[in-house]
Design goal:
alpha+beta, 5-stranded antiparallel β-sheet, 7% strand
């Protein structure tokens, strides 16, 4: 493979105008498709195989006009101090809102508007009431006219002195990431400039990554309605695609500079960079793709589509690194090197590139990676214990992990959704924000019996009379819990209703029950998903490193870092530790999909660092260095770049913590902290300590297994034979130059 990639990189460098034109054309086509496509919807949400989903399917069959999955809105009205909502001064204003909605611009999308006086939706103290609005379509499918009619009805009432707020998913909008991702990119640019000492070299990874992400996100936008992709899909794909796109380009550019330091011609350096570092990029990308595509085992269509879309952006990032990056290096010329290094390497011998007298043959000062590796080799046991114990302490909160899906109670307090949520909780009780929908597949007698049984349960605040369909063979019962939707008590109530019901006849659904079933499905899928992803990646890494213990160590280190990251997430988002620092306004259960999504993404990214760092160690070991010296060599050439890549990843992910969407904010924090733990503590600290203790055994592979496994040659041995190299370098002086470039 290294030989093929060498030819690909060299060909892209030589035909750089054609390659660049192809990528620009792809960007234009994808952008045109995105601009021509209609706005993406929220995506259909279904959880196959769960009771809540079976209930929704039954509602569609027996109550065809009910639009069970349609958007809802609750217009909450609180009377001025000293007045009641049914007073002569307030009641006409409330009825005016109802009539304006029924006859307003969005009436065609409205299924029903219920007055609080008809539905007895007035609090006991008379201070609060709410108008129920049901729509025929989902929140993201509502027209602008419908949304404006909803908000304007509240605005007019506010002008008359009422406190009017709107809750529900009718005002649902695509998540806004704010300026956080721009700050993340700016930090990435600064890190690249510091790492390379050249604006051109720093700009290349950013430019190529943005082109790749632009193509990926535009393609997702263009196909969003065709493939039924949710509005958050592009945000998460951007988060991952941008991070890996910068990193993959960073590794290619770094290796290219190293090859130039060896005295190669520019086209030869580009070919060798893609043939060596490009091999690592391919396998690193494969691990990320495996982790993301593996999300399909959860069998939740929305999550599967998110995984496939994000995997697509990773594939684009790999192709960009292998073709567009060497092409752009061709345009950049010698400007990818710091000014002094250019003159020294290319023989100008003047100016600040001129070597100092007496420097000839002197021992170059070890770089930071070399010094750090030597420190670990002197104290491997102590370093290993400190790293493992430290992550173990951080992981302790993960034992108290509670999962759920956020509701309006997790919105910022400044939003009308959150204020409506709080008004309903104050006026009607916390459970009123998450009513349960009990669907009865039977006649009136079964429905009445179900109502009587539910009324006797401890966690119930109120039970509405059963509403039957026209055929009188099904009914819907609304149950209001005593506790808030995301509480453990409400979850227990759902299970209690289900366990005491006639199996196959009574189902519990609604947003709250759907969230509970979603969380349970995520819990059940976590171990099978881990087994699949870790197992496939273990085989892949065994091919790369020709070892059993190195892939095993990589997998165990990942598990340690991801559990520690989960512990940090629980401490911040569930317990509220340092919550204000990260913009957490409301603590609660951790997003149900966050742990499994984090496992998938972080595993892929963790293997990136494993591949890029350890392949240089493997390369040195294969060429005759002792195990300890191979570790030092790997850090000498790769540590600085891996640190830069990790800082860039952390900066990009942290930028998404400013998003308005709670899921995006939480995933951004989780990925940033997980990359920090995995890159700096596991890969840069624990891994070299373990390799130092294992010695030659780290690279052991049974002979029979060595014969079976195909040789993917990530270290580029076949490439060196093909090119007739006798050694990897051009002498000790060039080695010292390379270490400092």
């Amino acid at each position: 493979m290294a030989t093929f990639l060498y030819r690909l990189g060299r060909g892209a460098f030589r035909r750089r105008r054609f390659v660049a034109l192809v990528w620009v054309a792809l960007l234009f086509v994808a952008g045109f498709g995105a601009a021509s496509a209609s706005a993406p919807t929220s995506g259909s949400f279904s959880i196959p195989g769960t009771e809540a989903q079976r209930a929704f399917d039954l509602l569609d069959q027996r109550f065809p006009g009910m639009a069970a999955d349609g958007a809802t809105a609750r217009i909450v009205i609180k009377a001025p101090a000293g007045e009641k909502v049914d007073s002569e001064a307030v009641k006409p204003q409330v009825e005016k809102i109802v009539s304006e909605l029924k006859d307003g611009p969005g009436k065609d999308q409205i299924s029903s508007v219920t007055s609080p006086y008809e539905a007895q939706a007035v609090s006991q103290d008379g201070s609060t009431a709410y108008i129920s609005v049901k729509y025929k379509v989902s929140g993201m499918e509502l027209t602008d006219a419908t949304r404006e009619a909803l908000t304007e009805s509240a605005t007019a009432a506010k002008a008359d002195g009422l406190n009017v707020q709107i809750g529900g998913d009718a005002l649902q909008a695509a998540p806004e990431t704010g300026s956080g991702e721009i700050i993340g990119i700016a930090i990435a640019a600064i890190v690249l400039v510091i790492t390379f000492g050249s604006l051109i070299a720093a700009g290349l990874p950013l430019l190529t990554a943005l082109i790749g992400v632009g193509i990926g996100i535009s393609s997702i936008t263009a196909l969003a309605n065709v493939l039924d992709l949710g509005s958050t899909t592009s945000t998460l794909a951007m988060m991952i695609g941008l991070a890996v796109g910068i990193d993959y380009a960073l590794f290619i550019v770094s290796r290219y500079r190293a090859e130039l330091a060896e005295g190669r011609e520019r086209d030869e350096a580009a070919g060798r960079a893609v043939g060596t570092a490009g091999s690592a990029v391919v396998f690193a990308g494969l691990t990320v793709v495996i982790a993301l595509v593996g999300l399909a085992v959860v069998n939740i269509p929305m999550l599967s589509k998110m995984g496939f879309a994000a995997a697509g952006t990773v594939v684009i990032a790999v192709f960009v690194a292998l073709t567009l990056v060497p092409a752009m290096l061709g345009f950049a010329g010698k400007k990818v090197l710091p000014a002094g290094t250019k003159s020294k390497l290319f023989g100008k011998g003047k100016g600040k590139g001129k070597a100092k007298p007496g420097a000839e043959g002197a021992e170059a000062k070890p770089n930071g990676g070399t010094r750090w590796a030597r420190f670990i080799l002197r104290r491997p046991v102590m370093v290993l214990l400190v790293g493992v114990i430290g992550l173990g302490i951080v992981a302790i909160p993960a034992s108290k992990l509670e999962m759920g899906l956020p509701d309006d109670g997790a919105q910022p307090v400044s939003t009308t959704q959150r204020q409506a949520y709080d008004l309903l909780s104050e006026g009607f009780g916390p459970g009123f924000n998450g009513p349960l929908m009990v669907v009865v597949d039977g006649d009136k007698a079964l429905a009445d019996a179900t109502v009587d049984r539910i009324k006797g349960l401890d966690g119930v605040a109120a039970v509405m009379p059963a509403t039957q369909n026209e055929a009188k063979d099904a009914a819907v019962i609304t149950v209001v819990p005593k506790d808030r939707p995301s509480s453990v008590q409400t979850e227990d109530l759902v299970h209690e209703i289900r366990e005491g019901s006639d199996s196959g006849k009574v189902f519990v659904t609604g947003a709250t029950a759907m969230n509970i079933d979603f969380s349970q499905k995520m819990n059940d899928a976590l171990l099978p998903y881990l087994a699949l992803v870790v197992g496939l990646a273990f085989l892949l890494l065994m091919l790369v490193f020709r070892s059993i213990l190195v892939p095993l160590k990589a997998a165990l280190g990942f598990l340690l870092s991801v559990v520690a990251a989960l512990g940090a997430v629980v401490a911040v988002f569930q317990w509220g530790w340092l919550g204000s620092l990260f913009g957490v306004e409301q603590t609660g259960p951790i997003m149900s999909m966050m742990p499994i999504f984090m496992v998938g993404v972080v595993f892929g990214l963790a293997m990136d660092y494993e591949v890029f760092l350890v392949t240089r160690m493997r390369e040195a070991y294969v060429h005759g260095e002792r195990p300890g010296q191979a570790v030092v060599t790997g850090f000498q050439y790769s540590a600085r770049v891996v640190v830069a890549a990790a800082v860039i990843m952390i900066a990009v992910f942290s930028g998404f913590m400013g998003a308005s969407d709670q899921m995006v904010k939480m995933i951004g924090f989780a990925l940033a902290i997980a990359v920090f733990f995995d890159a700096f503590i596991v890969r840069m600290t624990i891994v070299p300590a373990v390799l130092a203790l294992l010695g030659h055994k780290a690279w052991w592979l049974p002979k029979w297994l060595d014969r079976i496994l195909p040789n993917v040659d990530v270290e580029g041995e076949s490439l060196r034979k093909h090119l007739g190299d006798s050694s990897d370098g051009a002498g000790p002086d060039k080695d010292r130059e390379l270490a400092n470039v």
